[in-house]
Amino acid sequence: MAPKDDEPFFYDHDGLRLAGRLWGAIGQAGDAGGSAPLPIVCLPGLTRNSRDFADLARRIRDDEPDRPVVAFDYRGRGLSEYASDPEAYTVPAEAVDTLAGLDHLGISRAVFVGTSRGALVIHLIAAMRLPAIAGAVFNDAGPRLEIEGLETHPRHGRRRGVLSRLATRRRCRGGIARPELSGDGARRF
């Protein structure tokens, strides 16, 4: 039996019971002889889950009642089972889990919406199964993280300059020292 709007569904992958939420039904528009609209697949950030997309799903379906929206809970988040190995919590594992969820639902192509880590998962899905990506929206993600932008953020504003000084002092990226960078070069990096 298919889940009702905003009810969880479950599938098994990599020895785990994983979960997601579905609004609408996959392929429901095809009943009138037309092609079914592409589903929208929503992927949350690092510590978030499928419930984050409930309002978005409802708004999309208010405008397009035949368009299905699906959101996934990564392993160890939301209603998905926890993996016993801490090393199992990686973006590649989450991408493969998501592809298994798409297969479970019979989705071969979709428009993806990824928030933060979800955008990284979309990048890997594109590398693994490019034809699955009809389009992508990256929310709260980008190719660079600018120190100046962080300093204008309300949480960091009261500590203005701390991040720039840290970047200059550490001259590192991903824990790898970069002694060739100094001063403005380290800030730009």
TrEMBL record:
One Gene Ontology term of the molecular function aspect: hydrolase activity
A Pfam match: Abhydrolase_1
Transmembrane segments: none
Keywords: Hydrolase
InterPro entries found in the cross-reference section: AB_hydrolase_1 (IPR000073), AB_hydrolase_fold (IPR029058)
SUPFAM superfamilies reported in the protein's UniProt record: alpha/beta-Hydrolases
The organism's place on the tree of life at top rank: Bacteria
Keyword Chaperone among UniProt keywords: no
Protein's UniProt name: Alpha/beta hydrolase
Organism: Jiella pelagia
